TrEMBL record:
Residues 390-400 have a biased composition (Acidic residues). This is Gfd2/YDR514C-like C-terminal domain-containing protein. It comes from Lasiosphaeria miniovina. Residues 357-400 are annotated as: Disordered. Residues 357-368, 377-389 have a biased composition (Basic and acidic residues). It comes from the Eukaryota. Residues 143-312 form the Gfd2/YDR514C-like C-terminal domain. PANTHER family: GOOD FOR FULL DBP5 ACTIVITY PROTEIN 2. Pfam families: DEDDh_C.
Length: 400
């Protein structure tokens, strides 16, 4: 696992210095706190420590904070109530999203004992998300992964743009994990769409080969609203994006409201685990997706792979919790998340590899064209320099 240095150090410190202060692996839930009176106080930061300069910061953001923690460790029994109140009232987005993801996918209480009761997500968020699925710890929600591509660089809506949507239903995921006869195979668990939205260019026709999971659909803005409304009808929806600012702005500009119960961001979830920001491509490499079959910067593909990345981030999170507690057992449905995220049909793999080869061929042709242009330009400069030198020699002879 890429998370090595400061996570392992923090785990060792948590046992070594437990009697001196409060150090907890990220993101821990203090079940001893009264959730009814201080619901957000049930969430602790990765590692609160007093650093030089009397500032309370978190150790997960920068590795050198850990070095400060090692060399300048001070107990936190006397920290100011105002500073603690700030962390309670302003929880980290990635931390909050991680807690919600654990609740939705049913692994928020891996070690389910009477001494460690399951916290109330309704008291933490102010509202509940989804009903319980019978015989499952997962919540009955529909994940809606959204990605927008083809904008003009300023977030404005051009004549046409692409909007990708991928859907994952926890009911279908639960049926697959339980081995139900009505369960869909892994290839059909994630439903993906690639919409080419025509704003004021009705004659535009999209390329058909780039979308790996079907054929693109050309729609108007009104038709897009209708299709998205059909996807969310009568269900609790959780919207998912990777760096969600652009998608939120476009949906707001198009006057499309998905009425989500919550919005997750894989960029924030990854930052919570590794402490750094990353692109979707690097995130997929980190969580184990084969680079050869990824065809990114296509809205439908990006939405699909973002949903797969969410499942693999959940797998990493659950495995990490089990590493922290030797008595914990990994829930049986976690392996289903990994199977769904990493499974691709033979046709999808072939299409992805073919697209990658075409991209490499185009890149080589472009580089060869650049070299030819550069050589012709160098030859022109040499001829001009030679002609100028001949003129100078002729002028010198006339002067003589």
């Amino acid at each position: 696992m890429p998370v090595l240095d400061f996570d392992r150090i923090a785990v060792k410190l948590s046992s070594r210095f437990a009697r001196h202060g409060r150090i907890n692996p990220w993101p821990s839930i203090d079940h001893s706190l009264d959730c009814s009176s201080r619901s957000r106080g049930a969430i602790r930061r990765f590692s609160l420590c007093r650093l030089p300069g009397s500032q309370i910061k978190t150790a997960r953001h920068k590795p050198h904070y850990i070095r400060h923690l090692i060399h300048h460790f001070q107990p936190l029994d006397d920290y100011e109530e105002s500073n603690m109140k700030f962390w309670i009232d302003h929880p980290d987005k990635g931390l909050k999203m991680t807690v919600v993801l654990r609740h939705l996918l049913g692994y928020d209480n891996i070690k389910n004992t009477a001494a460690s009761p399951k916290p109330s997500i309704a008291k933490f968020l102010g509202h509940d998300i989804g009903k319980g699925i019978p015989e499952s710890k997962m919540r009955d929600v529909r994940f809606l992964s959204i990605d927008v591509d083809g904008l003009d660089g300023h977030g404005r809506i051009p004549g046409h743009f692409s909007l990708g949507v991928s859907i994952l239903d926890t009911q279908t995921l639960h049926a697959l994990a339980r081995g139900s006869g009505t369960a869909k195979p892994e290839s059909r668990i994630i439903e993906s769409h690639h919409f080419v939205v025509r704003c004021w260019e009705p004659s535009y026709q999209p390329a058909k080969d780039k979308f790996l999971f079907g054929l693109p659909e050309t729609v108007s803005i009104h038709e897009l609203r209708v299709k998205l409304g059909e996807m969310i009808s009568h269900r609790d929806v959780v919207v998912l994006c990777h760096s969600s600012k652009t998608e939120s702005k476009i949906l707001r500009d198009l006057e499309i409201d998905l009425f989500p119960k919550y919005t997750l961001d894989t960029a924030e979830l990854y930052k919570m685990q590794d402490g750094t920001s990353t692109t979707l491509g690097n995130l997929l490499d980190t969580v184990g997706m084969l680079h050869a079959i990824k065809d990114l910067h296509v809205a439908g593909n990006d939405a699909n792979f973002t949903l797969r990345a969410l499942l693999l981030l959940a797998v990493r999170d659950a495995e990490y919790q089990c590493q922290l507690d030797a008595d914990s057992v990994l829930p049986y449905w976690i392996s289903t998340f990994e199977a769904v995220a990493l499974w691709l049909s033979e046709d999808e793999i072939k299409r992805g590899i073919r697209n990658r080869r075409e991209e490499r061929t185009k890149e080589r042709e472009w580089q060869m064209e650049l070299r030819q242009q550069s050589r012709s330009q160098e030859g022109r400069f040499e001829r001009e320099d030679k002609g100028g030198a001949d003129e100078d020699e002729g002028g010198a002879d006339e002067a003589v």
